[in-house]
Each structure stands twice: as C-alpha cells, then as structure tokens.
Amino acid sequence: MQMTDSSQSAAIPVVILVAGATASGKSDLAEKIADKFTGELVNADSMQVYRKMDIGTAKPSKESMARIPHHLFDIVDPDEEFTVADYSVAGRDVINSIITKGRQPVVVGGTGLYIRALFSGLADVPGADLQARSEYNELADKYGNGYLHDLLVRVDPVSAAKMHPNNRIRIIRALEVFNTSGRAISSIQHDHGFTNGWCRTVKIAIDVDRDELYERINRRVDLMIDGGLVEEVRSLLSMGYSAELKALSSIGYKEICSHLSGTICLAEAVNLIKVHSRRYAKRQLTWFKGDPEIKWFKVPIDSDEIWEFLTIATKKMIF
Asked: 201 near 293, Cβ under 8 Å?
C-alpha cells in the first residue's frame, strides 16, 4: 500500500483528500486518517495559511499539530500576499516531500479553488491589472456592485451567472481579465480544462444533513466568541493590520472589525458571522457536489467503512 512503501510512493504519488463544508468535521476525520495510514496533513484552507489568525479560522489545536505533522498552516502574515498559484506550488512541494519520506499525504480543507489548483493546475490567466482594478472599484463605489455585475454579464455571462452581484472582488477580477486579454475568464478556464493532473487522488467528503450542519456552524461561531475571537481581532488591529486586508475581510474577521469600529453591536456581528458562514457552506457544498470523483460519507461516520474504502482505492491506484 502506498503509505508504507516509499519507493512505490515516489513513483506513483497517491494523495488522500478530505473535503466538505465548514464545520462538517473534516479536520477531525483527516487526523484520524493520518493516524491510521501513517500520514501527514496538508492544509487546503485559504485562511488557515495566515499567522495570528487562529480562532476565527478554526485551526487545529496546538496539541494536534504537535502530534501529527501539519503543513501549510501559519506560513504568511495577514498583510502578505499569498495567491492560489503560490499555494499550488507550495502544496506540490510539501506533498512530494511527504511522499519521499514514505508517508501518506492527507490534504484537508474546504477552499475549492485551492484544491483544484493543487491537483489540476491553473489556467493561464493574465495577472492583475491594478489600474483597471482601481477604475472598477471607483465605478462600484459610485454606482454600486450591481453595475459591475451588469458589465460582466455583457462580456462574460458564464462567469457572471456563477457570481453573486455583491461579490465585488471576483467580479472585478473577471473584468480585469477581459480588459487585459480580450477574452472571458470562463473561456480561458474552459480551454485549460484543469487537466494537468500530476498525482492520483482519492477524494472523500463528509455529508452532513443541512439542518445539522447549520446548527454546527452556529455552535462553532458561539465557541469562537467564547474562545476570544473579539480579542484576537482587536489584537490584530492593534498590531497595525488594516481591516481592509484580504485576510481581515474574511468571514468572522470582517464582522468583528465592524463591531470594533462601532458600526454594529456584538450581537449583530455574531449573527452576521453565522449567516455568512451558512451561505459559505452552501457554496462549498455546491462546489464539491459537482466533483464526481468525491466519495461522500454520511454522518455519523463509520470509520471502518472509510478505512476499507481508502485501503482499496489507494491499492487500485498503485497497482
């Protein structure tokens, strides 16, 4: 089996992916898999790469990180740029190093684009056009995000249909690409096909009943508040990190930043975190349900069923 044969692992990389929605139990399951199959964990959560952001990103405990090797957690500061392309390169390097040691890479996370970039490569999309980005932001400030979405509908209706009209960042990025290349980003991605696979993957995900998942999310948010999320955000701001940073604009942090600025009360901030987290979970499920390679396991998890599936699946890929 791959996880115990280093020479075979190096020749045929087989990686286990544990995916799913936020608060579904991915981290706990991935740790159990790493224990069972002599593995090491590789982060695929776009927010857990940031240092000093522990509570709001639901990072694994220090005890877990000490017991099992964890990679790509706490690798950049909140004001450092870290792109999907950066993650793809770093992830491959880490996975190859794990395989070289004869251990099993277990990728865990819910950032779909990170996962796709890691396993299938990135489309050759033009880089940032800062001047165009500034102009589009000015238009959005003046006329609203819906105005930009309407512009995108005209030049790239496929991408526009997948984006919420208020998702200014993604809309502007798509408009930038069209402005620079004259091509719709959806067309570029379609031509690429995301087929540059460099390893074999066994993909699993946790299937939680929607009502239960939402209840888990609500409980997690309450635990984050009780665990010191407000103090964590206050500390980041006191260090000089701007609330406008990408890292601090993420769910959990942006709402507490609004509270600390006096814009909203704490109760409203907490409620918004729950609402935004549930919406994010819904988007994650839509993304992962669209991947036919993922094997879903319903809660409550049957560990023996998962061990059997992983053992058979990885052997098939090697032999």
From this structure: yes
Mention every residue, 6+ apart, whose C-beta is less than 8 A from residue 201. Answer: 14, 15, 16, 17, 119, 293
- Going from the N-terminus, what domains does the chain have, and what CATH number goes with each? 2-123+194-318 (3.40.50.300), 130-192 (1.10.20.140)
Rg of the chain on CA atoms, in Å: 20
What length does the chain have?
A: 319
Three-state DSSP at 14 gives strand
- DSSP-assigned states of every residue in 88-131: HHHHHHHHHHHHHTT-EEEEE---HHHHHHHHH---------HH
CA dist 310 and 33 (Å) reads: 9
Give the model confidence (pLDDT) of 52-91 as tens digits. 999 999 999 999 999 999 999 999 999 998 999 899 999 9
Are the beta carbons of 76 and 48 closer than 8 angstroms? no
ω into residue 300 within 30 of 0, thus cis? Answer: yes
Cα–Cα distance for residue pair 6/19, rounded to 1 Å: 25
Is pLDDT at 319 greater than 50 in this prediction? no
State how far the Cα of 50 lies from the Cα of 75, in Å rounded to an integer: 6
**Mind listing the pLDDT tens digit for each residue in 220-255?**
999 999 999 999 999 999 999 999 999 999 999 999
Nearest to 302 by CA among 212, 206, 233: 206
Q: Counting Cβ atoms within 10 Å, is residue 144 exposed (0-12), middle (13-18) or buried (19+)?
A: middle
Task: Give the span between the Cα atoms of 261 and 239, in whole angstroms.
Answer: 15
Identify whether the C-beta of residue 1 lies closer than 8 Å to the C-beta of residue 314: yes
Would you call 297 helix, strand, or coil by DSSP? strand
The position carrying tokens 């952001």 is: 53
